[in-house]
Amino acid sequence: MVDCDRRTATMMTLFGTLLASGTAPLEASYTSAEPNGYMDKVPAAWKGNEQIGIVLYDHVTALDVIGPHYFLGRLAGATIHFVADSIRPIPSENGLVLTPTATFETCPKNLDVLLIGGGTAGTLAAMRDPAMLAFLRDRGARAKWVTSVCTGSLVLGRAGLLNGYRATSHWIGRPLLKEFGAVEVDERVVFDRNRATGAGVSAGLDLALALIQRLRPTEFAQMVQLFAEYAPAPSLDSGTPDHAPPAVLARAQDMLTGFVAGVREVAATANDRRPG
Amino acid sequence: MVDCDRRTATMMTLFGTLLASGTAPLEASYTSAEPNGYMDKVPAAWKGNEQIGIVLYDHVTALDVIGPHYFLGRLAGATIHFVADSIRPIPSENGLVLTPTATFETCPKNLDVLLIGGGTAGTLAAMRDPAMLAFLRDRGARAKWVTSVCTGSLVLGRAGLLNGYRATSHWIGRPLLKEFGAVEVDERVVFDRNRATGAGVSAGLDLALALIQRLRPTEFAQMVQLFAEYAPAPSLDSGTPDHAPPAVLARAQDMLTGFVAGVREVAATANDRRPG
């Protein structure tokens, strides 16, 4: 989920200044860095060579993709690509900028994992972006795993990649999955054949852990979970619609009415002109 | 936790090219974005004006700071600053670059929340960086909340900010807290007066949720938890040393021996020349 305000504008101005100067000591900061790090000690049998594409777009919810990135980024031997329409910096939310490392054109043609996160207005824009949909259809047709977090599944759906698949989404998005031919499942992580979808935002951690169990031996996944100290203990119990107080749920739903209407509008358009 | 490899170098080269070109359509991407977003519907009574400083440094573990950022970034009316020694892009891990919005000099003098994340070799470097320690001591002396995630508490400790405080850290770091005068507590989130420390990596989500409960009405925190769909359900149960299989724990500990030795070395130096 996304919100965007004047702080983002301020940050973008600062960043624009930096871009214009072109003098940031990037290579220096890299070469001064630590050696290859603790994952070098991973046994050879636990190493792989996956090509992983994490899709970025303006106002994607950062945690949707950075949660999974923690786990996927520890797949020793794998290569992570942050993919967007260009390598321009991508504004996510509240002043946080994410940096693509590949474009729709330069991203490897055959991916082991394709992952897209969600958001609100930014996600609606992604669902309307022909270049995004073309990229997802192309790589999704061959990727070993086609995955999403939060309302990212609605973008996969719009691209036709969840037609006939069981899937989940952020709780606000789950009832909308059927608009794109998917079968709504009210679970936190849903695997159906090579599609893996996660519920809202924080579900990306659960999705990624479950995915690395499928890519590597269980002991490897356990080790990464231990590194992440992933034994969550939220201090409140309002993480799902059936646990949140009714007034809190009603307010959250009210805030998202525009998003829901937007998805229905996109779906109506999509139905008019599939496969888009 | 951090690891750093050739992919980071590739990414930094790409990014350097972009910086040199100075032509990214940043303002265009901002102005074409969604309107102010769903948090605009937050009632006035739930709005604040906090100044929040999230500290970045080379090879910080991204999820340590992006997890809390999800929650803190939804405090309507608050301003988030990503603070580093300069506004050069900061390499975190596995190709992910984070972008500061303020420097140690330009960051507001009085912060409501100061937050620092952890890592491994990058964190050791931060613990040895006089400018970092000076920044933390200055802002930490006046911040309403001085907070950390993962091994970030060791940096706070090195800066003298946890002396006599109960605190936690990543499980590998908890026994090291006493080197800096802190009292180790084996809990996921520890509050002691205005210090709030979290355990490893993923504990940043729990820390931030608990913190926003203290900054806003409970209903607000519940609403943000619902937006995040933060009802975690990991598919494995190896997130803590006492739950991970012994062989997995032994391997993880082995990978981190260099980090532990480095912290002890920093602590010995710190003891020689406090307050540094």
Largest sheet of chain A: 7 strands, mixed
CATH topology of one domain in chain A: Rossmann fold
Structural class of chain A: alpha/beta
**Number of β-strand runs of chain A:** 11
Q: Provide the spatial order of strands within the biggest beta sheet of chain A.
A: 5-2-1-6-7-11-10
Oligomeric state of this protein = homodimer
CA-CA gap between termini of chain A: 25 Å
- Pair with the most extensive interface? A-B, 120 and 122 residues
**Rg value of chain A:** 19 Å
Order of helices and strands of chain A: HHEHEEEEEHHEHEEEEHHHH
Poorly predicted tracts of residues of chain A: 1-36
- Name the CATH homologous superfamily of one domain in chain A: Class I glutamine amidotransferase (GATase) domain
What's the CATH first level of one domain in chain A? Alpha Beta
Broad shape of chain A: globular
Approximately how much beta-strand content do the residues of chain A carry? 5-15%
The CATH architecture designation of one domain in chain A is: 3-Layer(aba) Sandwich
Helix content percent band of chain A: 25-40%
- Total DSSP helices of chain A: 10
Mean pLDDT of chain A: 87
Description of the structure:
- Two copies of one chain form a homodimer.
- Chain A is of the alpha/beta class and about 280 residues long.
- Chain A has a domain at about 45-205 and about 240-275: Rossmann fold, CATH 3.40.50.
- Chain A has helices spanning about 5-20, 25-30, 60-70, 120-125, 130-140, 150-160, 205-215, 220-225, 245-255, 255-275, and strands at about 50-55, 80-85, 90, 95-100, 100-105, 115, 145-150, 165, 185, 190, 195-200.
- In chain A, strands 5-2-1-6-7-11-10 form a seven-stranded mixed beta sheet, with helices on both faces.
- In chain A, strand 1, helix 3 (about 60-70) and strand 2 (about 80-85) form a beta-alpha-beta unit.
- In chain A, helix 3 (about 60-70) packs parallel to helix 7 (about 205-215), helix 4 packs parallel to helix 6 (about 150-160) and helix 7 packs antiparallel against helix 8.
- The radius of gyration of chain A is 19 Å and the shape is globular.
- Residues about 1-35 of chain A have low confidence and may be disordered.
- Chains A and B meet through helix 1, helix 2, helix 3, strand 2 and strand 3 of A and helix 1, helix 2, helix 3, strand 2 and strand 3 of B.
- Chains A, B: It comes from Sphingomonas aurantiaca.
- Chains A, B: This is DJ-1/PfpI family protein.
- Chains A, B: InterPro entries: Class_I_gatase-like, DJ-1/PfpI, INH-QAR.
